[in-house]
Specification:
heterodimer, A: mainly alpha, 6 helices, elongated, B: mainly alpha, extended
Chain lengths: ~210, ~210
């Protein structure tokens, strides 16, 4: 137990110590997972729901969780990796990094010869004299990574996920209406015969596209 | 298992795979070549990137997410024509309340947990705010990883942020129900009654 906690701390230090962008993506995914687990547990321990209702709601929450987690991970991670690649291949630079690349002949002076910079396999951090710019490069790259991760989470949490979830919810709602044979209405109305307080409780319990934790 | 490995190796060595792989790589590279090179020349911009990498932890990230959510989600709800006016009103109020409460608790708990981790992950070279060497005990070294010598590095600070965030996420599984849910309900009620009040005043004045 003690050894595994120690390993856990070392792994965390090795993986996130020099990669805050990756940390934001991974903890964001963990946030969505725990948020979804909390939501599923809330359904499971709710005495007011019948076992039949639970058997419908739990898979629905799982599907919801999958939409949220996958869209967050795919969008945020792709954007972060793309930004990372731009920096590591030298497409996105600072004067100091560019000067280093030119000095070490990674930027060709002859316009007919191909530059190493901009090649997808090129990685500044793997070149021989990397130590010369290591601090500047790492600081710049971490900053770009964090900006890209933050933009990715804004895009996924505030735009893409709510749209995906709304589509999913609308489809689910249509399925229920079709199954129960309700009369189709053009708009969703506030349920009659319950207090506003009860209604708000219900809408809070119903999960939405925004992260709850 | 060895047979599967051998089939895989033969497949990846085949001419078909090699030419496909080369084709995909060339396509990726041509797409990548179309992106222009860019150099940040302004020193202030470069310093800002450096600072963002060092200072933005998950707590600040949550604050940014909340602020941008407040600028987009209530408007999405307000323009949702597939629900009646009453539902729309409650939905906008609930969204605002949820974002405000969720962001506030999310930010404070993350910040608090990161602070807690920082105070319990001291190392041999740790000093207090007066520059005095800290006496290490099992409480202030509980979260210190083995083999790390200095807490002054950027990497160590990011480690503390990561661990603090993980602890915060577990804490928030409870506070989500214990604090967020009742506070959201309270704020939603207040916002709804304010909207109603404004509507009544508007009708009276017209």
């Amino acid at each position: 137990m003690n050894l595994s906690f120690s390993n856990f701390k070392s792994t965390l230090y090795k993986n996130y110590g020099e990669n805050p962008g990756r940390m934001l993506v991974h903890t964001g995914v963990l946030g969505w997972i725990l948020s979804s687990l909390a939501q599923i547990s809330a359904v499971l321990v709710n005495d007011k729901l019948s076992p039949e209702q639970k058997s419908f709601l739990v898979p629905q929450e799982f599907a919801d969780a999958a939409v949220n987690i996958i869209s967050f991970y795919v969008i945020t991670n792709s954007l972060k990796n793309f930004a990372s690649k731009l920096v590591s291949t030298g497409k996105l630079t600072t004067p100091h990094i560019k000067e280093f690349l030119a000095k070490n002949n990674f930027i060709s002076k002859n316009p007919n010869t191909k530059d190493k910079v901009g090649n997808m396999d090129f990685d500044i951090s793997k070149v021989a004299n990397f130590d010369e710019i290591s601090t500047d490069y790492k600081n710049f790259k971490n900053g770009v990574d964090v900006v890209a991760s933050t933009l990715g989470s804004i895009l996924s949490c505030n735009i893409v996920t709510p749209i995906l979830r709304n589509n999913f919810a609308a489809r689910e709602q249509k399925k229920i209406i079709d199954r129960n044979g309700y009369t189709k209405k053009n708009s969703v109305e506030r349920p009659r015969g319950i207090t506003m307080n009860e209604f708000q409780n219900n809408v809070y319990q119903k999960y939405s596209g925004s992260m709850r934790i | 298992m060895a047979a599967v490995g051998s089939i895989y190796t033969r497949f990846t060595n085949s001419n078909f795979y090699q030419s496909m792989h080369k084709g995909v790589k060339n396509f990726e590279q041509s797409f990548y070549n179309a992106i222009p090179n860019f150099q940040f020349k302004n020193k202030k911009t470069i310093d800002t990137f450096d600072k963002i990498g060092q200072k933005i932890s998950s707590a600040e990230n949550r604050l940014i997410l909340g602020a941008t959510a407040l600028m987009s989600q209530p408007f999405i709800d307000a323009s949702n024509k597939s629900v009646d006016e009453d539902t729309r009103k409650v939905s906008v109020a609930r969204t605002i309340a949820k974002i405000v409460v969720g962001t506030t608790t999310g930010f404070l708990i993350r910040k608090g947990c990161i602070k807690l981790i920082k105070s319990s992950s001291k190392l041999e070279n740790s000093v207090d705010k007066f520059g005095k060497k800290i006496k290490l005990d099992k409480f202030n070294t509980f979260f210190s990883p083995k083999g790390v010598k200095s807490d002054k590095t950027e990497a160590y600070s990011q480690y503390q942020n990561a661990l603090g965030t993980i602890v915060a996420l577990v804490v928030m599984m409870i506070t989500n129900f214990a604090i967020d849910a009742p506070l959201t309900k309270l704020l939603t009620n207040k916002l709804v009654s304010k909207i109603d009040q404004r509507k009544t005043e508007g009708k009276k004045s017209s």
